[in-house]
Amino acid sequence: QVQLVESGGGSVQAGGSLRLSCTVSGRFDSISAMGWYRQAPGKQRDLVAITTSGGGTNYADSVKGRFTISGDIAKNTVYLQMNNLEPEDTGVYYCNARVRSRWVTNDYWGQGTQVTVSS
Questions:
Q1: Strands (E), the chain
Q2: Would you tell me how many other CB atoms lie within 10 Å of the CB of residue 3?
């Protein structure tokens, strides 16, 4: 009933930029938060950035000042602008949406998009 579609991944050299996008479709009542997580090889999936329906944002310490999450949850879309990319940013980036239908709240995930940063 809910689908997340991500795009914008790719390969860049250190110092380059990428812009990821995520759009949610399906039937649901509302979205309370959307965000981006990444999973580097051999590591757990960790928070990169989130934004809530109230306008709040939260970033991982490692990306503060370099990444910006933006968009409009009301339009079911968010972006992640990634500047000054570093090799340690390499990983699969997953979009997440916390959605509510009636009294049920669930987290949905996209398939992920690969980001590779070379030195």
A1: 2-7, 10-13, 18-26, 30-39, 45-52, 57-59, 67-72, 77-82, 91-101, 104-109, 113-118
A2: 12
> Could you tell me the two tokens for 98?
């916390």
Tens-digit pLDDT profile for residues 44-56:
999 999 999 998 9
What is the rounded distance in angstroms from the CA atom of residue 1 to the CA atom of residue 24? 10
Closest listed residue to residue 89, CA positions, set 21, 34, 31, 18: 18
Q: Specify whether the backbone of 100 is left (phi greater than 0), alpha (psi in -120 to 50) or beta.
A: beta
Give 23-67 pLDDT, tens digit per residue.
999 999 999 999 999 999 899 999 999 999 998 999 999 999 999
Nearest-angstrom CA–CA distance, 119 and 117: 7
Pull the structure tokens for residue 94.
């997953």
